[in-house]
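Below sits the subject:
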Amino acid sequence: MAEVVLKGVTKSFPGGVLAVDNVNLHVPDKELLVLVGPSGCGKTTVLRIVAGLERHNEGDVYVGERLVNEVAPKDRDIAMVFQNYALYPHMTVYDNMAFGLKLRKFAKSEIEARVREAADILEIGALLSRKPKELSGGQRQRVALGRAIVRHPTVFLFDEPLSNLDARLRVQMRAEIVKLHARLGVTMIYVTHDQTEAMTMGQRIAVMNKGIVRQLDRPLEVYRRPADRFVAGFIGTPSMNLVEGTVSASNGRLVFRSESVSIEMPPAFDSVRRLCPHGEITIGARPEDVTSASAPAATSLPLGEGSVELVEMLGNEAIVHAALGKAAIVYKTTGDDVPVRGDKVKLSVPLSRVHLFDSKSEARLEHSSDRS
């Protein structure tokens, strides 16, 4: 059993910097969990605490059923792959992969078997006699993975291991890591600031900000039902459109007003006044959910008429940037229906695709048309 559990883990640095704030995580055995968030959110600190490289101030860390708060990193049965490959330049690939086993006094035959097995898994058997300087970035990353694999750990930790690779190689290597996870059947915790990596690799993702886990769930659930405004704006490319304003009753109907728009809200949103008594809310809509039909459907929320300012052609689709008063709205459209700069477009969002947030607490507000 190689589950990883963090209970109330808090870490602060000198000067009152709170890096990790009461983090509770349960990573089941054999799961691939991705920690994602902007730089400085605390994700790498959490990883280092699990590895034992950073001492936390409060809380408990378990690997399997063992409390490891006082256990040295070398005795936690954990292997870590870093952002920089940290390969010994004077050693061959074989010796780099075997080095940790030699330090642990493994028999020569066992070292040979483990290195060959890892090399076969990673398809680097032909590179074992080369030095790191003779390898490409992707090959060096495979060697770093192999050095971790030969230890047969119960838990793998990855700290932004693909950051130094070009875009094409990153796509290839993240697919390789997912395959590796399935083949080895071990617990993995992967840290990245790249939301695409998080969405495509993680069985679950934990979105962090300012030391706090803001949401922990399956990738599509995080995308479709972000728990708060931060998660909504962070996950998704392009980012979710967010318009702040207030809601109030007018002639028996609920009206949303901002600097840019005035929208009569349908009955499906009546619960907003109860859930958010102060009336300050943020309306959110993902770019792929915004439409520019000349006559919005009855089941849509009309945003108003915008002016096209920029069109990014991406081949089979285009990303359109439109000004809606002082608000900037981004939406996607197909290559057959692309406006040009200066065009006027009537923008709307299907009711089931509208996201509402409390502007003060940033928490998600549910409504009856919300997508299930």
User: Anything to note?
Assistant: Residues 225 and 361 are 16 Å apart (CA to CA). The chain has a mean pLDDT of 91. The first helix runs from residue 43 to 51.
